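Hi all, posting the design record for the shared folder.

TITLE: backbone redesign
STEP: 1 of 1
STRUCTURE INPUT:
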């Protein structure tokens, strides 16, 4: 089974591209969705976050807005949070790989926003970077509810620059040329990897 790391900076269209891989029959492990599950009521991360940021727990689930304020106020909090979230995500990812193998899948896509930043690029066979022009990226991100220029800047500062990601990619999916163009690129990648 080929493990594909799918990544891209905020607003590049990674989620849509991930869905295209899934629609084509590839197994997909979505790291963001996994974190959402960990933060939800009854999620494995709730007791740990309660111990570190008690006010970030509302109705037995993590309130992402409150947690985000903690992270913005002190960058060290990000490292603390990641030190216990990443192992939990790793556990879930291993389960997804086992399930994909059991289903006979030939490709599993790890949809990971911070693939390079967390060293995840060393755990995959191929890397797909989702990219768009800086203009398109800015428009997409600034249209999100609650997004501010400061928050966007903070997020970008934690991400490997798009130009660097593109250099390190085995494949690039450009999402600013329309959905059909992106879908065709995904199909070409799957074909090149020997099918799902």
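Okay, here is what came back for every position:
SEQUENCE:
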């Amino acid at each position: 089974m080929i493990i594909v790391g799918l990544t891209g900076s905020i607003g590049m269209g990674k989620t849509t591209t991930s869905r295209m891989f899934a629609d084509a029959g590839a197994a997909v492990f979505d790291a963001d969705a996994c974190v959402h599950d960990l933060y939800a009521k009854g999620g494995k991360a709730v007791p740990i976050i309660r111990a570190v940021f008690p006010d970030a727990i509302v109705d037995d689930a993590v309130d992402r807005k409150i947690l985000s304020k903690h992270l913005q106020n002190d960058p060290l909090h990000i490292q603390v949070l990641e030190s216990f979230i990443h192992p939990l995500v790793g556990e879930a990812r291993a389960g997804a790989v086992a399930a994909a193998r059991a289903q006979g899948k030939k490709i599993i896509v790890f949809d990971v926003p911070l693939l390079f930043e967390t060293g995840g690029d060393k755990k995959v066979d191929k890397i797909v970077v989702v990219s768009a022009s800086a203009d398109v990226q800015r428009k997409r991100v600034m249209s999100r509810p609650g997004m501010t220029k400061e928050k966007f800047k903070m997020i970008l500062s934690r991400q490997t620059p798009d130009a660097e990601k593109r250099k390190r990619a085995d494949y690039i999916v450009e999402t600013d040329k329309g959905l059909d163009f992106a879908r065709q690129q995904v199909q070409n990648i799957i074909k090149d990897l020997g099918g799902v």
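COMMENT: The chain has two domains: 1-26+105-196, 32-104.
Let me know if anyone wants the other runs.
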